[in-house]
């Protein structure tokens, strides 16, 4: 049951992202109020984050486990749309993160410096390669020239939401849950969850504030994480 719902939810997120980004890039922003511009940026940020969450579930093989080729294809598409990222590279690093959480082998670990800015830029440097940037620039050039998009639309409704989304994912998915780790000491108990109200948890980062639950039950899709509180593995 989870598998079909996960696939449907993933496709809906990709669809909603496509609709909102198409509107945002083509709209005459000068006809929008400041409030409308801000809301559109926030909405696009939310769906950008959704793309990455879709890809993340794909890394765990839970988008469509009946056919991992389809699972991987959807996850790879989500990452390309998100920021021209490589599904294979990110999946390898994410496996290391789960296997060696809080150690020097964990690519997400802060290694002696939990300062937010330092950690964020170091984190991004590990996941965004020169090839990714080239792929992204090529994608931008194609889109801009093909659809004659104004550069300010691109900045407001594509670049800013992408940056905000990366900050959102890092803050709720790495910084808050993993900053309490001691160097090279793996412990699930050191991973912190923020048990926010359901709607707030969804808005902040698709329930990724339930981060310890994710590490305990990586086979659960993101929308099931709030219900994993207090579960034991015998329930699954």
Automatic annotation (TrEMBL):
Cofactor list: Fe(2+)
Record bears the keyword Methyltransferase: no
EC number, UniProt record: 1.14.19.-
GO biological process: lipid metabolic process
Keywords: Membrane, Oxidoreductase, Transmembrane, Transmembrane helix
Transmembrane segments: 6-27, 34-54, 66-85, 130-149, 155-176, 188-209
Coiled-coil positions: none
Highest taxon in the source lineage: Bacteria
InterPro entries, sorted: FA_desaturase_dom
Top-level class of the enzyme under EC nomenclature: oxidoreductase
Pfam annotation, one family: FA_desaturase
GO MF entries: oxidoreductase activity
Domain Fatty acid desaturase: from-to ranges: 34-228
Family statement drawn from the similarity comment of this UniProt entry: Belongs to the fatty acid desaturase type 2 family.
Name of the protein: Fatty acid desaturase
């Amino acid at each position: 049951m989870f598998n079909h719902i996960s696939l449907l939810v993933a496709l809906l997120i990709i669809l909603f992202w496509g609709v909102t980004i198409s509107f945002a890039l083509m709209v005459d922003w000068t006809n929008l109020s400041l409030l409308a511009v801000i809301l559109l940026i926030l909405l696009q940020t939310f769906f950008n984050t959704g793309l990455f969450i879709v890809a993340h579930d794909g890394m765990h093989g839970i988008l469509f486990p009946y056919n991992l080729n389809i699972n991987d294809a959807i996850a790879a598409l989500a990452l390309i749309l998100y920021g021209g990222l490589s599904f294979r590279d990110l999946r390898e690093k994410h496996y290391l993160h789960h296997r060696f959480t809080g150690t020097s082998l964990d690519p997400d670990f802060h290694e002696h410096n939990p300062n937010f800015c330092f950690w964020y830029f170091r984190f991004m440097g590990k996941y965004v390669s020169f090839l990714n940037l080239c792929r992204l620039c090529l994608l931008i050039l194609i889109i801009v020239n093909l659809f004659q998009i104004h550069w300010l639309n691109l900045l407001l409704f594509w670049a800013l939401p992408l940056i905000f989304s990366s900050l959102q994912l890092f803050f709720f998915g790495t910084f808050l849950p993993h900053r309490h780790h001691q160097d090279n000491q793996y412990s699930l108990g050191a991973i912190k969850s923020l048990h926010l109200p359901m709607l707030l948890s969804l808005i902040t980062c698709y329930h990724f504030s339930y981060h310890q639950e994710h590490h305990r039950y990586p086979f659960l899709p993101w929308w099931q994480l709030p219900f994993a509180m207090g579960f034991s593995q015998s329930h699954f």
